[in-house]
Amino acid sequence: xxxxxDIGNTNVVLGLYDGQRLLHTFRISSSRTRTxxxxxVMLYQLAQQRQIDVTAIDGTIVASVVPPxxxxxxxxxxxxxxxxxxxxxxxxxxxxxxxxxxxxxVGSDRIVNAVAAYERVKGALIVVDFGTATTLDCxxxxxxxxxxxxxxxxxxxLDGLLSRAAKxxxxxxxxxxxxxxxxxxxxxxxxxVFGYASMxxxxxxxxxxxxxxxMAIFATGGxxxxxxxxxKYVKDVCPELTLEGLRLIYxxxxxxxxxxxxxxxxxxxxxxx
Length: 273
Known about the structure:
5-stranded mixed β-sheet; Nucleotidyltransferase, domain 5; 7 helices
């Protein structure tokens, strides 16, 4: 079995695969103060809670946008499962050319999402990820990562507003009954849900016009199911897109018999298959 780990700024999401089948998902907070031993205990307890035999896990792979947590988590995985984790980064085989000016600047989660989405359609696409940041990432018809857009995420924006507006109080992030808010709670919810939906539609229109091609649109991330259904262009909401991309990247490296934890720094661009 394969354990995939997506380390985000807010949460660490884990998925356990048996072949291509996703058996379990787990979500824990991204605490930078936890030690590798503490994460190791949590991982072991999560496995025990789901009655998973840890000795059956014969591979692990990590994507991280939180550098201080990357080594902590890889040490925890190494100790708990006695396997050397793959870490998504320069030198690892992704099967996708990165046409960013500096490929090292691209968050690994954005590349992983792009890999998973391209595997589904084999054509031009945009992935919208509603996470700590809301990102839109573009892939060409030929499967090249082109770049994208980064916007402060919904919760980050809401926290920033509440910290600066003394009369506003924290609300539930939920769909309001209508666009026109008749109280402050519904007005804020309308701005969050319909405002972000309209922003995403506007950016998709601009990106497709700039690139001159029709693109398949995917959405993922914790708030995707809330916002995407109110957009005009997002048709596919894929909550496990990042986990699926990690599985694909692991298989591409496993088949090519690369070391589990590549130390290669020969190129700043991931290799093509």
